[in-house]
Amino acid sequence: MRLNSKFLQVLLRKVLKMGVRDQHFSSAAGLTLVRPFKPVLQHIHTFGDSVNVFHKGLLMHMNHTCTPNVEADSKAQSSQSATTALDHDSWRSFLMEQGVYCCSECIQSIKEECPSYDHVRELAELLVKAIDERIKQPSEGLRSKTRRTVLFRDLWYLFQTDDIIVDLTNETKSDNRMRKAYRVLGTHGGREYHSHTTSEYPAPNLDYLGSDPSDVMEPFCIDAYLLDFNGSHLVPIPHRLQITPYSFERDITDLELSPLEYATMETRKDLLHRGQRFVELSFLGSGLFRRFAGTTLCTEESFNERLIVDSSTYFEDHSQSSGKTEGQGTLSLNWIDQYPTYAHRLRSTERRLRMKRDEVNDNDYILCQCRCYAFRLRNLKWVQVHIWDLSNITTTEAALDRLVLPKSQKELLISRINDHQQVRTSPATVDWRNLRIVAKSPEGLMILLHGPPGTGKTATVNSVAERFGLPVYTLSCSSLGTTTEEMETRLSKHLRLAHKWDCITLLEDASLFIGRDGGYNPSFGTTVPVFMRTLEMHHGIVFLELNQSLLVDKSVRSRMHISLYYPPIDNDKKFKKIWMTFLQSMEQELNNYHVGIRVEKEDIMEYLVQAKKTYNGHHIRQAIQTITIRAKQRAKEASRKGHSPEDASDQWSSTGNSGKAKTSVIVDSVDFMRVFETILESEDKLKYLSFDEDTATEIYKRARTGEMLGLPTSIA
What we know:
The protein is an alpha+beta fold.
């Protein structure tokens, strides 16, 4: 908006309370008001009244300075004053009285524009009308949230400092869980590109601009912040957001960002509840044992497993990341320091949240992040997970009951672990060496499980953990390093986390450190004492797994609280019991899939008993997992087709009334026969991978045909 009238320039100076300056306020080239007309918006509600006061004040000034005529009434005098010419002295005295006098040159220009009061009133009314139509009406409709559409040029009125806005991009529209809310710090951009340049802001290249109005506009930028957790308290994290230029009016809810008032009530409730959940999870210092079912936000891995939620510990282990949010600004406010007002408001917000962490209000909850940090116990790595993908874990004793283990061994494990858990929360305990009650720090519990692979050692640990509702921190000894120093440092770090989260620690491949020869470890003699001392300093529960029990050093065996041996699964009774347990679990999972899947347990068991091969726990688990997945896929495919295949070898059958048929999939011995053939064939080939390809093939063929296994003459 350009004002060419020097009188209107002076009037605007008075209404906006801009005072007097040495240079001419008025300009022969006119005065341009640039969007978003911030000075005018500050006085928008009093603008019309201020203009009326100004020009009516001029009329009163003229009445007082005119020669009094006692015979004329006041109305006649006002009418006469309205048409009376305004001389130089009248303008000079009035402008000096109003505090906007500049110089004689300006007065001369104003006198030429407004020779009488009628001209003054017409120009003033024209200015008020223009401000009302171009600025006041659009801004009031958008600020009151009564308008549903907005022009790109009017976005300034829609977004203002301290407003809460919601991300409405296409990604968040398809997944409401990823929607975020921000509090506005300020806005800029949204204007036409200008050709003027300065040393600080060079002119942009306009060669690419087209005739579409949206091509010649700068993006509308919004500087805002959301709230994140830095390991100790909530902090504001600045973001720079933008809305791309567009033509014509657009529905406000179709923009990339919109004020919170335009969001649905469901969205507002979701943001509030999610923020409350975020604060709850963030301020729990010891971590939470939760089930995660979904996709991670950082690596986009999908899995369903249990993990530890503990943002505080994450920032302790990643101190250089404290206060950061991926891909955005940081608490150092590096890019935002150029805006002193922004930096001041952010630091004030952080100070309030740090000093009054218990006084988080609903608006703070709405601004909170949608993710937290969790530790995967399966691969011992930190991941970012969504708040709503976490759920509570329901513990059950059924897992331990299903475990095929002698009753005496089960009772021994339960009693010792029960005692250990009570000792941790009791100031006194029993010293078993002299049977005296002494006050001392609780000691750890080390349990040795040894036996061939696939005999139930890991299943025992998982069942015990399920029974007591404890996480299992699985650690492979081969990942602890090759030197004593590396082993001690890494093991201490893992045990510290396991103790903090009250985990059961499972050490796999323990023969590397506690076997007689240390698994051919050259530094075995110095590593064992350090390894055992580190374990003894740990106050938690530690299970050690060995696949070769004869290699256990006697000094190590004597320091174990419990030692359990797991013989090979060659007993028919135990073999049947283990397999029946797995088959029942598989049948229950398939029934929960809500399709007609029938497991022929008797047929399967008859095949397994007649088979002469010995299957260990690993074979059983692989077969169950493979057949379960295959059965679900077959049932899904049959449901999609709506009928059963004609090929009888695929074991399909279809039952039900007319209309949509109910599909039934049969799982029997044929499925297990195929899976076991594949598993055993692969394992047989792996035995000969150390030979060249021709030799391995020859040995494999001879072994499969039942010939005596021997080495060829060329390699004998």
